[in-house]
Amino acid sequence: MTSQHGAFIWYELLTTDVKAAGAFYGDVVGWSSRPFDAGNPDGYHLFSTGETEVGGLMVLPQGEECPPDAAPGWIGYIGVGDVDATASAIVADGGRQHVPPTDIPGVGRFAVVADPQGAVFTIMKGAMDGESRAFSPDRAGHCQWNELTTTDPEAAYAFYARHFGWTKGEAMPMGEAGVYQILDRDGISFGAVTPAGPEVPHPVWAFYFGVPDIDAAISRISAGGGALLHGPHAVPGEQFIVIGRDPQGAVFSLVGPRKA
């Protein structure tokens, strides 16, 4: 995939059990999963919807590669034109570098960083031609929304605007909870920044994956050993959202219509 500077180009699950997680999300979201390297069935895996690869999953790193309090969870990849320059600029702007710029032969160059409030994400310049289709706001099986919950929404927005060119879309007042600020890229809304409440332990990105039937997905969450944490809640566009926790402990979000 090309750099698509400022676009979310990939989503990745860090988990303690790749096989079990692949089966769970296959049932709940409808993804298929396979090893990236057929000769290494215990290594990196790919999630696909139909013929389109939309994300990956891997065993949660241990030791110096991962913070001591790291737990299973999802991380988003933002495309950049120059990984080294962007990583340096992020650190100079109060962010943090968790994994330095690193090459993946035949795939691209990446770095794991955090914004000044502590939300972690990955930046990447892909080595392959073609644009990523991992994010698609109207397709089931793809990420449809990227949401940052943070302790300082205005500072966070300014940070991402400086480094990725994002702009403000509609601002939706939420009373005492603050403002839900829509994020645009090239005039298209792709996510939002929202204030963190007391129930959020630290700033974090959440990714809403589309499903064709939200009630069917809810049933499969519990049947697969996961837990429903919030929802279903109605959102614009006759859609409903839920937040769940998979059997390995990773929190995930879904969006979709009600068929009943």
Automatic annotation (TrEMBL):
InterPro entries: Anthracycline_SecMetBiosynth, Glyas_Bleomycin-R_OHBP_Dase, Glyas_Fos-R_dOase_dom, VOC_core. Pfam families: Glyoxalase. It comes from the Bacteria. Transmembrane segments: none annotated. Residues 7-126, 139-257 form the VOC domain. This is VOC domain-containing protein. It comes from Pseudochelatococcus lubricantis. The lineage of its organism: Bacteria, Pseudomonadati, Pseudomonadota, Alphaproteobacteria, Hyphomicrobiales.
